[in-house]
Write a structure and sequence with these properties.
single chain, alpha+beta, five-stranded mixed sheet, four-stranded antiparallel sheet
Amino acid sequence: AAQLPNGSTAPDFTLTDRDGVTHNLYTYLDQGKVVFIKFFACHCPSCWSYHNSNKLESIYQQYGPDGTDQIMVLMLEHDINNPEAFTGGGTYTQGNWETGNSIPMIDVEGTERTVFDDYNLSYYPMITMVCSDKTTKLISTALTTAQLYQEADDCPGNLSIGNENVSASAYFDYINKQLVLQGMTAISDISLYNLMGQRVLNLTAVNQSQIDLSALQNGTYIVTVQYAEGTFKKK
């Protein structure tokens, strides 16, 4: 039950995510992208822990379709006939996987489940990186966000992430209702937008890394931060 050996040619697949968007692996690779595939299960505690580390979410936000469009991330779920688990329904789940997540999630069922055999899935979470030359590499969940960036940058091909600041991150503290910013210096502007594109919050010359959001209604927002090293954007 060994994993797919590093340097193997990645098996192609075409899968449709929970939003109805179809994803073909080789199409992304032919576009010169690096693809991270996260194999997981909604019931899995270690999958939930890794999910909440936001490591791949950070990569997707900065280098995915809404960022530089150099990297794609896909989440492939292994449990059978358990669709309500994605939103925290039922008892066979660790929580709501959609909260704070913008990575495409795919509920793999039926004949499409051959993808798990193709990639020799024997545990999860299992992270497989596929370079644009279609070669695979197994990625440790212990790697930091900066190390994940470096793995992608080391892929053969034309991908060059460069010297951008990869330590910047942001998350929402649900207990204290605060936006927590990390790895950003000299913040000049913080803006929050709703999904209609309306700015609902704007702060300038910010000198703290914890922003009180308790006055906002529950919902989904886009945060944009202008700081010394550039612009950070995240849903």
